[in-house]
Design goal:
Layout (H helix, E strand, L loop, with lengths): L2 H7 L3 H11 L11 E5 L26 H14 L3 E5 L9 H10 L3 E6 L6 H9 L4 E6 L4 H8 L4 H14 L4 E7 L7 H10 L4 E6 L5 H4 L1 H4 L3 H17 L5 E5 L20 E3 L5 E2 L21 H7 L1 H5 L16 H4 L4 H8 L15 H13 L6 E2 L6 E2 L7
Parallel strand pairs: 1-2, 1-8, 2-3, 3-4, 4-5, 5-6, 6-7
Antiparallel strand pairs: 8-9, 10-11
Bound molecules: iron/sulfur cluster and FE2/S2 (inorganic) cluster.
FE2/S2 (inorganic) cluster binds next to helix 15.
């Protein structure tokens, strides 16, 4: 165990949290999260227009090496992290994935693979299972091949995903189907739910797009109408009731239509951190979109535990002491922690403002109206995600 944690190990982390919140101060001592997202690479064969990666993607040449990732995984296990979620970009684009899963498993970490699946062969998936992989989460762009492949910007992606999902269950790995929903695929939801049942998935995530990074650039093409959202909520509730004991359904609504914001990441620097391909320790996957914050790297002289507990970026919006009004005197401030810092930055230019998803934010009405107008404007053309800063979907006349 690293020395920075020596003084905290004997304490119940929830005590540290209570002290912090009652003092409404920045953190000096914070329990290490149980789960960490390891973004192994930003490389990906797909080009989804809602990708949660930053618009400025990390190049392959800057990625942590195999030895660096192994050191990180050992350190995570040593400080008390229990689960690592391998993500990207596309984590299977890393040639060393089996070796990394094996190492994570050897040091006692539970491993989850969050994948688009299109690069996997049965042999490689089987090697991952042999290396100790515990769970597979496959993203789907819809229930029908042609429109799903159009969203992914990748030919034959949907068929490949179905094949890999089948292999996953044949290898007796638990499966989560992750369905990212937006105006152009919400009408497929009943079929997506049935697809998850047919694939023998344990869990389905019906995740409406959240609008930062690439999704913000594509908001007009993706934003659902309010009527679509109401129908989606009805369908999810009906399916949850009907499929009790068969399929667990998680449901995330688009923030713009919410009354109160989501407790993003469980609160900034409170329950979660993310490691970027080049080794930056981040409070969330979109944190680098906030300009003016410096994020420490695992390549620095600091331990991961020190970065989590002491770095300026984590302490900037931790707890409740940083909050402006209306959050400062709000009864929900310890329920949602003021919502999402990245969304506040994207929509107001200041990450320290109340998340505009909240009805009490002075700009909430404005973004609600904007969402309604954009969803009705009929824009369908995507800007595909790539290292070149995005490519507009070709039109029928080849433009
Ligand atoms: Fe949450 Fe702030 Fe809105 Fe209160 S005012 S509900 S704390 S975002
Ligand atoms: Fe960064 Fe919400 S995505 S705080």
């Amino acid at each position: 165990m690293s020395d920075e944690l020596a003084g905290t190990a004997a304490r119940d982390p929830s005590d540290g949290l209570a002290v912090l919140e009652s003092a409404a101060s920045t953190a000096e001592t914070f329990g290490i999260p149980l789960a960490v997202l390891a973004e192994l690479t930003h490389r990906c064969p797909l080009q989804c227009p809602y990708c949660s990666n930053p618009v400025e993607l990390d190049r392959g040449s800057t990625e942590l090496t195999t030895a660096e990732w192994k050191k990180v995984l050992s350190e995570l296990a040593e400080i008390g992290v229990l689960q690592v979620h391998f993500s990207g970009g596309e984590p299977t684009a890393r040639k060393d994935l089996v070796e990394l899963v094996q190492h994570a498993s050897d040091v006692g970490l539970y491993t989850n693979l969050i994948t688009s699946a299109v690069l996997l062969t049965r042999d490689r998936l089987s090697s991952l299972a042999d290396a100790g992989l515990c769970h597979v989460q496959i993203s789907f762009q819809g229930s029908e091949a042609a429109p799903a492949d159009r969203v992914a910007g990748f030919k034959d992606a949907h068929r490949k995903k179905l094949e890999v999902a089948k292999w996953t269950r044949e290898l007796e790995l638990p499966l989560t189907v992750n369905a990212v929903m937006h105006r152009q695929n919400l009408q497929q939801l009943p079929d997506i739910i049935q697809m998850a049942v047919d694939l023998d998935a344990d869990r389905l995530e019906v995740a409406n797009v959240q609008y930062y990074g690439w999704a913000l650039k594509n908001r007009a093409a993706l934003m659902p109408t309010f009527a679509q959202l109401e129908e989606t909520t009805r369908l999810v509730e009906e399916a949850r009731e009907r499929l009790k004991g068969v399929l667990t359904i998680d449901y995330v609504i688009p923030d713009y239509y919410a009354l109160r914001p989501k407790k993003c990441m469980g609160g900034w620097g409170r329950q979660f951190f993310n490691i970027s391909p080049q080794g930056k320790i981040l409070p969330c996957h979109a944190a680098e979109s906030i300009t003016g914050l410096e994020f420490e790297s695992v390549r620095s002289n600091h331990s991961i535990a020190w970065i989590w507990q002491n770095s300026a970026a984590f302490n900037r919006y931790r707890g409740t002491g940083w909050m402006p009004e209306p959050c400062r005197s709000c009864e929900f401030k310890e329920v949602d922690f003021g919502g999402c810092r990245c969304q506040a930055f994207a929509l107001t230019g200041d990450a320290g403002n109340t998340d505009p998803a909240c009805t009490l934010s002075p700009v909430h009405q404005q973004i609600f109206k904007q969402a309604e107008e954009e969803s009705a404007a009929g824009v369908t053309r995507f800007l595909y995600r790539n290292f070149a800063g995005g490519t507009l979907e070709p039109t029928d006349d080849g433009a």
